[in-house]
C-alpha cells in the first residue's frame, strides 16, 4: 500500500466491519479504466454496455453482495470482507489516517485498503477478477461539514425566518416562487422526524438508507436532520428526499453509495453537506479512490441534476472542485446585518480539472472556533443534542438543554442546503433551466462581500468582485430569480413560439395554478390520453381551464407536436407545461 504524501498513517489491529461499502466500475466503453485515465471529464467513454452491466450484476449477486445503487458507470455495493476478498483475490486491511474530521478536528480515522498480488498501490482502490469489472473502490470515510457549535456565542439565527430574510427569499415567496413541484435529495447522516417539520407542513419523502442493517428513519448524529431545515427556509414548498449514508454510529461510511442512490431517483437538486480532505500541498490529481465519485458527480450533472456540495470547514476535498458543481462557501451576517467572510469556511484555488476556484457562492455560516450560529432542530438525544448540552472545557454549552431536540451549529454544511434551496426556487420558476443556467443566475444575483478573511488554513481576503473567500458572494434569491428570468426571456426570444398560441400572456403564478388544476381534472387527463395534440391546443389560458374539442378554434396542430414530444421525455409532464406557458 502506498499512502499519499502528507498523510500520517499506521496499520491498526481493529477488526473490519461486518459490512464494507464500496464501488465497482463496469468496463468502460472507451477502453481505458477510470483508474488509468488522464481525463475524467469525457464522461461517455466511461459508460458501460448493458451486457457488461448484466454480467457484473450476476457476478456480484453470486458473491452475495447487496447492490445499493446503479448508474451508467458502475454500482455501489455492500458486502462482508470475505465477499470482497473473493471479488478481488486480495485481502482487506484497516489502517488509520490522520485527517480533518467532524467539526474541523484533526483525528485518526479508520480507512480500509485492498492488498495482495496485482493490487494497485493507491489506497482504497483495487482490481477485480471478472473481466467486466475494471476496478473497485472501498468507500473513504467522509465527514459532515462542521456540526458542532462554537463556544460563548449568544447571537444566533432562527429557522426559517431569519435565514430566509437575510438571503432575500421572502419577496420571492410572496411572488409565488417557493420551490413547489421541485425535489431536493439530501445525502447525509440521516433524517429523524421532528415537530419543527410537521408544524411547518414541510414535505419530506420517507427516508431511504444505503447501509444494510441501519434504520432509514434514523439520524444518530442529528446532522442531516438539522441541515434539512435550511432547505425549507429558502424553498418551503419543495419536497425533500433524505438518503441516509451513515452506519449505526452515524459515521458517513457510504457517501458515494448514497449519492448514487439519490441520483437514481432523478431529483431536481442534490444537496451534499459532506466531503473529504487533502493535505497541503495538493497532489497533481485526485486520489484513485476518489475518481469514481468524480465520474458519478459528472454523470448527475449531465442528467440535468443541480449538484451542490459544501466547500468545507477548513478542509479541501475533491467534491466541491468537480466541474459543474455549485460549491457553497460561508458568509457571516451579524445582528446589524453587516456581512463578512466566515472564518470557518474553506476557499481556495486548485489546478485540478484545468483550474477551479472554490467556493462558487456562499450561504450563511458562523465564525470560528465552532460556527455556532443557527438554531436547528435535531432528534432528541442524538449526538449533537447531547454534545452541546454537556460540552465543557474550551467548548462550553450552546445554551440548549439535553434531550430538547435543538442545537446551535452551522458550517458550510448549512450553506449547502441553503444554496440547494435557492436552486430549487430557481428550477421551480423555470423548469427547463440547466444546472449551469441556475449556477450562473445564483452567481449573477449574489451580494458582493468584501470584508474579512476565510478559514486560517487558506486565509484569503474577501474583495470586491469574485474572490476565494466567498466566491461571487452571499446568495440573493430574489436577484437570482431576476437573473434567471432574463436568461429565460432571451432563450425564449431565440426559440420564439408565435404569441397567438399562448392566447394571452400569463404570470408564473397563474401558470402554476392552471397546471395544478389541469393535473387534477380527470376530464382533461382523459382528453390528453385520447388526443394529446388537441388536448394541449385546448388549453384556455385566459379562462384557466380547457375547452371541449368541439368548441375549439384550433391553432395549427403541428405547433403543439414538439411540446408533446418533450413532455413524453419528462416524467413531470405538467411541469413541462408550466415552463412552456410561462415563457
UniProtKB/TrEMBL annotation:
User: What keyword terms does UniProt attach to this protein?
Assistant: Hydrolase, Protease, Serine protease
Which InterPro entries does this entry report, sorted A to Z?
Peptidase_S8/S53_dom (IPR000209), Peptidase_S8/S53_dom_sf (IPR036852), Peptidase_S8_Ser-AS (IPR023828), Peptidase_S8_subtilisin-like (IPR050131), Peptidase_S8_subtilisin-rel (IPR015500)
Q: Where is the active site?
A: 188 (charge relay system), 223 (charge relay system), 413 (charge relay system)
List, for all copies, the residue spans of the domain called Peptidase S8/S53. Answer: 179-449
GO terms, biological process? proteolysis
Task: State any single GO MF term.
Answer: serine-type endopeptidase activity
The regions listed as transmembrane in this protein's record are none
One Pfam annotation, family name?
A: Peptidase_S8
The entry assigns this protein to a family as follows: Belongs to the peptidase S8 family.
Q: What is this protein called?
A: S8 family serine peptidase
Amino acid at each position: 500500500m502506498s499512502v499519499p504524501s502528507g498523510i500520517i498513517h499506521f496499520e491498526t489491529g481493529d477488526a473490519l466491519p461486518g459490512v464494507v461499502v464500496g464501488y465497482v466500475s463496469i468496463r468502460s466503453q472507451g477502453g481505458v479504466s477510470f483508474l488509468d485515465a488522464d481525463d475524467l471529464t469525457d464522461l461517455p467513454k466511461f459508460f458501460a454496455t448493458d451486457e457488461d452491466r448484466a454480467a457484473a450484476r450476476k457476478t456480484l449477486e453470486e458473491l452475495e453482495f447487496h447492490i445499493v445503487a446503479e448508474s451508467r458507470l458502475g454500482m455501489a455495493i455492500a458486502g462482508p470482507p470475505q465477499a470482497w476478498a473473493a471479488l478481488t483475490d486480495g485481502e482487506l486491511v484497516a489502517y488509520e489516517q490522520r485527517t480533518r474530521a467532524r467539526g474541523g478536528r484533526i483525528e485518526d480515522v479508520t480507512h480500509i485498503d485492498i492488498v495482495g498480488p496485482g493490487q494497485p498501490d493507491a489506497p482504497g482502490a483495487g482490481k477485480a477478477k471478472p473481466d467486466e469489472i475494471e476496478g473497485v473502490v472501498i468507500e473513504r470515510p467522509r465527514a459532515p461539514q462542521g456540526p458542532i457549535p462554537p463556544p460563548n456565542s449568544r447571537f444566533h439565527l432562527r429557522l426559517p425566518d431569519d435565514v430566509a430574510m437575510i438571503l432575500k427569499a421572502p419577496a420571492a415567496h410572496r411572488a409565488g416562487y417557493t420551490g413547489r413541484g421541485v425535489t431536493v435529495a439530501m445525502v447525509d447522516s440521516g433524517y429523524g422526524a421532528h415537530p419543527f417539520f410537521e408544524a411547518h407542513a414541510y414535505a419530506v419523502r420517507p427516508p431511504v438508507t444505503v447501509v444494510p442493517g441501519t434504520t432509514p428513519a434514523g439520524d444518530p448524529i442529528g446532522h442531516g436532520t438539522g441541515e434539512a431545515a435550511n432547505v425549507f427556509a429558502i424553498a418551503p414548498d419543495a419536497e425533500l428526499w433524505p438518503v441516509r449514508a451513515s452506519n449505526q454510529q452515524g459515521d458517513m461510511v457510504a457517501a458515494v453509495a448514497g449519492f448514487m442512490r439519490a441520483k437514481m431517483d432523478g431529483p431536481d437538486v442534490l444537496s451534499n453537506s459532506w466531503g473529504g480532505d487533502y493535505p497541503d500541498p495538493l497532489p497533481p490529481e485526485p486520489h484513485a479512490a476518489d475518481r469514481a465519485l468524480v465520474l458519478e458527480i459528472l454523470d448527475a450533472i449531465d442528467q440535468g441534476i443541480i449538484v451542490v456540495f459544501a466547500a468545507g470547514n477548513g478542509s479541501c476535498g475533491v467534491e466541491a472542485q468537480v466541474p459543474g458543481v455549485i460549491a457553497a462557501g460561508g458568509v457571516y451576517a451579524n445582528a446589524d446585518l453587516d456581512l463578512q467572510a466566515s472564518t470557518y469556511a474553506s476557499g481556495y484555488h486548485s489546478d485540478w480539472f484545468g483550474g477551479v476556484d472554490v467556493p462558487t457562492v456562499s450561504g450563511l455560516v458562523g465564525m470560528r472556533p465552532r460556527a455556532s450560529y443557527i438554531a436547528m432542530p435535531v432528534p432528541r438525544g442524538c449526538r449533537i443534542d447531547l454534545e452541546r448540552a454537556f460540552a465543557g472545557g474550551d467548548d462550553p454549552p450552546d445554551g440548549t438543554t439535553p434531550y430538547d431536540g435543538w442545537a446551535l451549529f452551522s458550517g458550510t454544511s448549512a450553506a449547502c442546503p441553503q444554496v440547494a434551496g435557492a436552486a430549487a426556487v430557481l428550477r421551480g420558476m423555470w423548469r427547463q433551466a440547466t444546472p449551469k443556467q441556475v449556477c450562473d443566475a445564483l452567481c449573477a444575483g449574489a451580494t458582493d462581500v468584501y470584508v474579512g478573511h476565510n478559514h486560517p488554513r487558506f486565509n484569503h481576503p474577501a474583495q470586491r468582485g469574485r474572490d476565494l473567500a466567498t466566491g461571487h458572494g452571499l446568495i440573493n434569491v430574489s436577484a437570482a430569480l431576476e437573473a434567471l428570468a432574463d436568461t429565460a426571456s432571451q432563450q425564449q426570444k431565440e426559440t420564439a413560439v408565435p404569441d397567438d398560441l399562448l392566447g394571452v400572456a400569463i404570470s408564473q403564478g397563474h401558470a402554476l395554478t392552471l397546471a395544478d388544476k389541469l393535473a387534477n381534472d380527470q376530464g382533461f387527463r382523459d382528453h390528453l390520453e385520447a388526443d394529446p395534440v388537441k388536448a394541449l391546443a385546448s388549453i384556455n389560458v385566459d379562462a384557466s381551464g380547457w375547452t371541449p374539442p368541439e368548441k375549439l378554434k384550433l391553432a395549427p396542430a403541428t405547433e403543439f407536436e414538439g411540446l408533446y414530444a418533450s413532455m413524453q421525455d419528462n416524467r413531470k409532464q405538467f411541469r413541462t407545461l408550466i415552463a412552456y406557458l410561462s415563457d
